[in-house]
Amino acid sequence: MLNLIQHRLLLLIILILPSIIVKEKIFLRQSEFCINFASPLTLNSPQYAYWNLTLALTAAPSSRIISMNTSIKIVDEYFGNYSTITFKADNGTLEFISNFNFTCNFCSYGIFYIYDSDNLNNLLYMSEASNLISTSYQHISLNRAITVLYVGNEYNDKTLTGYAVARVLEDNTKNCNLSNLLILSNNLSSLEVFRSNVDGNCIGYLYVPSDVTIDIPLFIYKGSGNVTFSGSHDYESQFPLISLNNDMLNNYAYEFILNKGLYTLDIPPNSTIALNYIINPGSFHTFDDKTYGIISSNGEPVHADIICQGCIANWAPVQIYDFNWLTNDISSLEFDCDGSASSFNGNKSLISPYANMTITFPNNCTKLRLNTDGGVKFFFIYSACKICNSLKN
User: Fold this and answer.
1) Which residues form the signal peptide (predicted)?
2) Is 175-386 CATH 2.60.120.290?
């Protein structure tokens, strides 16, 4: 047992075996801790292995504290070298979920440390520095606080992608009978079911990380009333995009192309909604009768063609909700219908934090195209039907 003054400590443990050198760094802030040393069972002579333990005081890392003033918080921006992010809840049960992926072959990999506290006590997990491709971790906090410490080179989304999600279970899962959080990954394409109980509305959450695009071509709804589908680019405030009900789902083919963001389904009591999703779909999306769709971007490039397969169609005015509308350069968005370019109709109208714009396309058009090389955060909502009189506005 080692007794130490209460400072942040850099503990470097070096284990040396024949032709093998293993170095581990552990960061602690505890007045005492215990280390158990185990002799290697595969060696005949104990002199071939020894431990070198070095203790040193070091400055505190840069820190960011996130208060759980809403039921779910998501961090997926960049970590700097020797920095921490702490999630703190005043009440309830705090659940933590993380995943980090190095995407380059010759990176100098950093290490993630996860603590069940807000001050680098109670180390739960430490990722491996060598041959790291992906590291995932999930935990229920005993102290209503989780801290993530990153030590390594600063990075951008070309070398490392990932996220840290924290939620207060009592608030986040209220009135939900099944799991209500779906985090999309590159190896999933499936059917997901959200179900509310009789006590009230359940909120189903879909989180789309930065390295994933999701296509939802099918909803199956069993219930009464409307299911409100909302989206958020900043993970804080959900913006209502569309209301789904049995009549609409029976008459329209839906196609939701969603990039990075947090999306919700507000489900009425005693109802079930299932959605089929596809990961990283292609750019061509077809319909042969009526369609209603959403395309989102959180600054990612978008190249999409919505095609009336074997038919021509009438198009309702397209709605665009432009996030950070004061700073976004919307001119990078390009639209055309069968090759004929279209422009914005009217000025932006503010629906904070979004600006709403309308685009009118000519009728008797077979293909609508949306193209941007990135940099703009928006929701693009469209509706069309093959030559008919009823259009969803």
Assistant:
1) 1-23
2) yes
